[in-house]
Write a structure and sequence with these properties.
alpha+beta, about 10% strand
């Protein structure tokens, strides 16, 4: 149990390729602000498509193949996410040529950024780079540019991606969350014990936070 007045620990397993992950986080962020909840966010790696080749796959084709969605359902989902995102202050800029990418290198870069206290900033920058600006996050140069954009060293970012120095550590963390039963994201764990999956909406997150605040009072 979180001690009274201590920040609420929130662990989030997610993938930057997942639109509901940024939606869910922003819904949670709004709820945290509305309830005045002191908190600490800890992001963790999860790959939606670990077997995906480096050059990725067209996003719409991937969704249709993986989930059996029709083109009409895919388009309706994009419209829904765009509207939800707009209400949260996030711009989705979907296009027919958008691609899903393998995110293992991306997670390694985030691991490196965490050592400098900048994982959260880089995570949000990468969500925006992918969904708003449609940047190719399978390109190491693009990833390094995004790191530089939040003030991290670009040449060191490239070195991290090229020598794969954090590959084993990232694989280990991914395996841990799979062992915990996480099979879909976002997966949000409050106070190391309360797991909530999916984008729950601002109201539901607010109720969850209020209940947790009552429990810790």
């Amino acid at each position: 149990m979180t001690k009274p007045n201590a920040p609420l620990r929130i662990d989030i397993a997610s993938d930057v390729m997942c639109p509901w992950c940024i939606i869910g986080y922003l819904q949670l962020a709004h709820a945290l602000e509305a309830t005045g909840t002191a908190h600490e966010i800890h992001w963790h790696p999860f790959e939606l498509n670990p077997e995906m080749p480096a050059d990725g796959q067209n996003m719409r084709e991937h969704i249709i193949e993986k989930y059996g969605s029709t083109p009409e359902q895919s388009e309706a989902s994009r419209r829904q996410m765009t509207e939800v995102g707009k209400g949260l202050g996030f711009e989705f800029s979907f296009a027919d040529d958008m691609r899903m990418h393998n995110t293992f290198n991306l997670h390694q870069l985030l691991h490196w950024a965490e050592q400098q206290g900048r994982m959260h900033d880089l995570k949000l920058a990468l969500f925006e780079a992918h969904f708003t600006h449609r940047r190719d996050l399978s390109d190491n140069n693009v990833l390094a540019e995004e790191a530089a954009g939040i003030g991290l060293d670009k040449s060191e970012a490239l070195a991290v991606l090229e020598d794969q120095r954090f590959a084993d550590e990232v694989r280990s963390v991914e395996h841990f969350w799979l062992q915990q039963g996480v099979r879909g994201v976002p997966a949000v764990v409050f106070d190391r014990k309360h797991l909530v999956t999916g984008a729950q909406g601002v109201d539901n997150y607010t109720r969850i936070l209020e209940q947790l605040n009552e429990m810790s009072a």
